[in-house]
Please model this.
Amino acid sequence: MAARGKVTIETEECKGCGLCVESCPPKCLELAPELSAYGVHPARYTGQACTGCGICFYCCPEPGAITVYCIVTPTKPGVRGGHHAPAL
Ligand code: SF4
Ligand code: SF4
Model:
């Protein structure tokens, strides 16, 4: 199935708690095997199957770590657009 969303994770903001990995319904996040500058395993997107649901954004305790994007298909009316992160 084509991805309907996309997620980016700022490695410098992530504390490696794993909440987003546990909460993602399609399990498309994982903790990287390598350590970040903070000495934790940061979350990363596997690159597949994100639905843009935003659950990872809402469960992440670190502001600015996760940004979720919805992939908008203009020919389909009613599809949500934009992203879940607040404007800075
Ligand atoms: S937006 Fe939803 S599907 Fe995409 S990575 Fe976050 S929890 Fe998973
Ligand atoms: S919930 Fe936030 S801080 Fe925790 S692993 Fe995911 S991106 Fe990192």
The two ends are 33 Å apart (CA to CA).
